[in-house]
């Protein structure tokens, strides 16, 4: 079969690779210029910033095997940074019970490796899915093409994207699937990237923050194979990000920089500061199972918003397991 996958995050790429092994023809459409979704690395003249996913863990045996293979291939390495929790009771050690890993030399490198064997059409946004007999056509918008174009026909379509977006795209062609995806709400997140010309002198590499504008800060250079320097990433809390979702980026940057200074107790001004708004950063709840698949219509969805038998959602593990499981259901 010729299968279209919409979204080149880790769910879509994991699904694509499994389908290729099963001898299907696969074309992946990605609206951004880079694969990886929320695992992308933001590249600047000062180096890369992991401005989305910060690290990953492995709960299941199946994902642990994949992680071990990535480590042997040199795609991932453990992050042994000192982590703390900062709250009303002060600063306490945290996160000691679980190994955390990162892609090297940046989180975006994992998707780049997974995409090497896959036909990924970057910079192409899918605006609609239309039936074409017992097949599918995609309506594609591209910055390089002035008019909307059609792609296909495809024997099957897989949506590997946040639940909100999957629900919108499938509302007409697959309303039952859309209704299930619409049950999941994705929370936004503002991400702040900072570079300093001098050390901040903080005694930790990452911190979970309670009760303020920020929920997480991390020193990127503490991760393996990163460019040296004082490079920090801060994530705003879901509540603050929701309240300020449509904030002007410059104003959001000012407010989050002030929050970073308040949280760290430092007044050092950065030599580089930038923000990025993730509209669909984290699933607020999970959908039971590992994927959605309408066998009759041959349309389905995968992503980190499925529980995949794990506790919680939004993890790289959920995304990869979901994509692999959906590929296995297609015959």
Automatic annotation (TrEMBL):
The GO molecular function terms of this record are: oxidoreductase activity
Q: Where is the Amine oxidase domain?
A: 98-329
Q: Which domain of life is it from?
A: Bacteria
Q: Where is the signal peptide?
A: none
The record's listing under InterPro entries reads:
Amino_oxidase, FAD/NAD-bd_sf
| UniProt cross-references to Pfam families, sorted A to Z | Amino_oxidase, NAD_binding_8
Listed name of the protein: FAD-dependent oxidoreductase
What organism is this sequence from? Answer: Noviherbaspirillum pedocola
